[in-house]
């Protein structure tokens, strides 16, 4: 079965101007999927992101520390239906801490929303 999915790929060989163009095109709906290798990990606030997939999440190191995982997972946090998938053969200590912290934050947010009568909505740009 064939699908018509429009995909863009960001990597370190793409210059800054082209990266900005690709991100703008993704946000405008030109692409359905934006694949990035560590370039989309931090600092981008894109409510359009509904899925973050982390490959080799169990390979310990700088990019798989609990803090790095939380940052990467957070790229989908502005989307009401945002999800993160961590692909791994086992759950590392860093992964468990990231999962625990994410659950803690979610519980706190749900309680706050309930106390203040807030119904979550996806952020819109």
TrEMBL record:
GO terms for cellular component: excinuclease repair complex. This is Helicase-related protein. Keywords: ATP-binding, Helicase, Hydrolase, Nucleotide-binding. InterPro entries: Helicase_C-like (IPR001650), P-loop_NTPase (IPR027417), UvrB (IPR004807), UvrB_YAD/RRR_dom (IPR024759). One of its GO terms (molecular function) is DNA binding. It comes from the Bacteria. GO terms for biological process: nucleotide-excision repair.
